[in-house]
Amino acid sequence: MSTGRTIVVGITGGIAAYKAVNVVRAFVLLGDDVHVVATEAALRFVGKPTLEAISRNPVNTDLYEGVAQVRHVAIGQSADLIVIAPATANSIAKIALGLADDLLGNTILASTAPLVIAPAMHTEMWNNPATVANIATLRERGVTIVGPGNGRLTGSDSGPGRMEEPDTIVQAALAALDSRRAGSAVPQDLAGRRVLISAGGTREPLDPVRFLGNRSSGRQGVALAEAALARGAAVTLVAAHLEVPVPTGIGVHAVSSTLDLQQAMREAAASADIVIMAAAVADYRPAAVQADKIKKDVAGDRLSLELVRNPDVLAGLALARQPGQLIVGFAAETEPDDLLRRELGRTKIQRKGCDLLVLNRVGWTQGFATEGNEIAVLNSAGDIVMEASGTKLSVAHRILDSIVGTMATGLHEVAPAS
Ligand code: CTP
Q: How far apart are CA 194 and CA 181, in angstroms?
């Protein structure tokens, strides 16, 4: 069935161009009318007949073909969405400058449709200040940047620069289209950012049937994931025993113990722009996990458990942070006095080495499994930068406002790692 949408897929000259075929295919399967605009260089990496067969439309490359139909502007004007995959460092520079020396440049300039860019290049090129500045310019203009991922590159090297997977690109593109249609009621200030969130409560096994756990339901972490998704982010949720459903569009890694959570967070943090540790993590775990169920007739009337300290996941992530990555911790305190609680928060953020700390009060009837929350956000100096109360979703948006504000200042980039 046709969606009635016209999607332009721009392909530039990088080895990842072969993967762009799957981006084209995904839109065609959705029922979109897909028009490929490939640069000359792109066609050295992927064949025109392949792209024409998959897109079911002629592939456009030459600025001087179809001049009678004023094609250099017609393609851009007809587009509901433009997706550039892969976008090389060179093409990103050209788009940032507004150059129109080929058909793709003209198409982009002539269009008012949402523009989604999936960069692909070697890590050095991605980290080059010129590329960093060009990407910042494009983000400011509301362009959605998807990826790049962190992984194996064309040579034997690996790192950030790998083109994001086609499915992820298509999902981000559809989200950009949706938010444009919705009149961007929610700001798209996390468009193209990768946000990693832990949520829920860990369980430390004692034997095959028992564990030590905590009362976290995961509601605040899931609300953060939902809010970040709505603001255009690609969201990964490391989920420890959630009691609430996760909205579609969020990548979920289910974990159980603190050590599982630590491993999942470490791996995913390698390619995240923002890391939020909302999970309630057990500070101790049983020194030994019994292979069989603990029996009363063996244990007797009193049973002592020996516990050992778990690693501090948040402090470890802060120490190993990627350049420019922003790390947010949570602190649930039972201290009823506001000032004393803030003092605890101030000490905690300094101990953890994170950029922001969300402080909330918990108790027998407060904080857990409830719909609302009341929080204060502290910066790395321990000063309160924001206070909010309301539903967990509205609080999540306020927390994201603080995160976006901190990223805009760039201050976290010069913050000491510990
Ligand atoms: N956290 C963590 N690893 C742990 C314990 C906590 O990553 N082993 C994280 C939590 O996810 C939260 C922050 O650290 O983001 C603060 O958690 P909290 O339990 O308030 O602090 P603790 O370091 O455990 O300090 P204490 O319980 O002694 O107050």
A: 23
Ligand 1 mutation pick, 203, 276, 312, max ligand atoms within 8 A of CB: 312
- The number of the ligand 1 atom at minimal distance from the alpha carbon of 317 is 7
Among all chains, which residue has been given the structure tokens 């799957």?
Answer: 22
Residue from 197, 262, 277 to probe ligand 1 pocket by mutation (most atoms less than 8 Å from CB): 277
Is the distance from the beta carbon of residue 327 to the nearest atom of ligand 1 less than 6 Å?
A: no
Rounded to two decimals, the pTM is 0.64
Q: What residues contact residue 202 under an 8 Å CB cut-off, 6+ apart?
A: 213, 214, 240, 241, 255, 256, 257, 258, 260, 261, 279, 280, 281, 282
Which residue segments constitute the domains of the chain, with CATH numbers given? 6-181 (3.40.50.1950), 194-409 (3.40.50.10300)
Reference 189, options 400, 42, 410; nearest CA is 400
What is the residue-level pLDDT of the chain in tens, covering all 418 positions? Answer: 788 899 999 999 999 999 999 999 999 999 999 999 999 999 999 999 999 999 999 998 887 777 766 667 889 988 999 999 999 999 999 999 999 999 999 999 999 999 999 999 999 999 999 999 999 899 888 899 988 988 777 777 778 899 999 998 998 898 888 777 766 567 888 988 999 999 999 999 999 999 999 999 999 999 999 999 989 999 999 999 999 989 888 999 999 999 999 999 999 999 999 999 999 999 999 999 999 999 999 889 999 999 999 999 999 999 999 999 999 999 988 888 888 888 999 999 999 999 999 998 776 666 665 667 889 999 999 999 998 888 888 899 999 999 999 998 766 665 444 4
Q: Is 204 in the pocket of ligand 1 (CB under 6 A)?
A: no
